């Protein structure tokens, strides 16, 4: 019988201490991260889409106000040929033009980076200002829906 302390008696039988992770533990962590991403990414995408739609509505309101200021200064809304670009810079000198009527030129594009559709005169209004949505095509639903400014 040996009179060694207990820690020395079992030292030969102790497995070595692990300092890393097993392959199985790593796979479990990767699967959990993948599941979280699969749930979170579509939700984040939906939030970004609805945020752009809300931003487009605000932009339409802002551009409508700018068009009203332009009309007050010059006596008429821009023609379809002039477009809303005259809110930023006037190509034909007009002494009544008191712009720019927007702070930045990028305000003349919708949140998806497309040009607004501007017609003046419109069928039943002095002008029509429309964004065609995320798909930049007439019609659509959700983020692809057309949004109109009401003068």
UniProtKB/TrEMBL annotation:
Q: Which family does it belong to?
A: Belongs to the GSP G family.
The membrane-topology field of this record reads: Single-pass membrane protein
Coiled coil location: none
What InterPro entries does the record tag this protein with? Bac_GSPG_pilin, N_methyl_site, Pilin-like, T2SS_protein-GspG_C, Type2_sec_GspG
Give the location in the cell. Answer: Cell inner membrane
Name the residues that span the membrane: 20-41
Q: Which GO terms describe its cellular component?
A: plasma membrane; type II protein secretion system complex
Top-level taxon in the UniProt lineage: Bacteria
* A Pfam family that the UniProt record links to this protein: T2SSG
One GO process term, biological-process aspect: protein secretion by the type II secretion system
Keyword list (alphabetical) reads: Cell inner membrane, Cell membrane, Membrane, Methylation, Transmembrane, Transmembrane helix
What is the designated name of this protein?
A: Type II secretion system core protein G
Q: Any idea where the Type II secretion system protein GspG C-terminal domain is?
A: 44-148
Q: Which organism is it from?
A: Parasphingorhabdus marina DSM 22363
Cell inner membrane among keywords: yes
């Amino acid at each position: 019988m040996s009179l060694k302390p207990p820690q020395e008696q079992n030292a030969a039988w102790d497995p070595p201490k692990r300092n890393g992770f097993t392959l199985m533990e790593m796979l479990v962590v990767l699967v959990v991260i993948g599941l979280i991403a699969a749930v979170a990414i579509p939700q984040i995408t939906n939030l970004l889409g609805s945020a752009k739609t809300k931003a487009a509505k605000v932009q339409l309101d802002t551009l409508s106000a700018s068009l009203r200021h332009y009309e007050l200064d010059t006596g008429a809304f821009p023609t379809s040929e002039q477009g809303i670009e005259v809110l930023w810079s006037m190509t034909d000198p007009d002494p009544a033009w008191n712009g720019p009527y927007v702070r930045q030129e990028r305000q003349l594009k919708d949140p998806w980076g497309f040009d607004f559709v501007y017609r003046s005169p419109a069928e039943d209004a002095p002008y029509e200002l429309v964004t065609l949505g995320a798909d930049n095509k007439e019609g659509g639903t959700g983020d692809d829906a057309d949004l109109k400014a009401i003068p």
